[in-house]
Amino acid sequence: MNSTKKFWMRSVATLGIFLLGSLNVFAASPEQEGEPVTHNVRAWVGARIIDGTGKPAIENATLLIRDGRIVAVGTRVKLPAGAEKIDATGKTIIPGLINAHGHVNDVSQLGVYLRDGITTVFSLGGDKEFALREQSATAPPGTVPHLYIAGPIQDSTAIPGAVAVKTPEEARKSVEELIRNKPDIVKVRVDDFLGARPKMSPETYEAAIDEAHKNGFRTAAHVVLLDDAKGVLRAGVDYIAHSVRDREVDEEFIALMKKRHAFYSPTLTREFAVFGYSETPSFFSDPFFLKEADPAEIAKMEDPKRQESVAKDPGALWYKEHLPIAMRNLKKLSDAGIVIAMGTDSGGGPGRFQGYFEHLELEYETKAGVTPMQALISATSGAAKAVNISQEAGTLEKGKWADFVVLSANPLDDIRNTRAIDSVWIGGVRVPAKKQ
Question: Model pTM?
Answer without folding.
Answer: 0.91
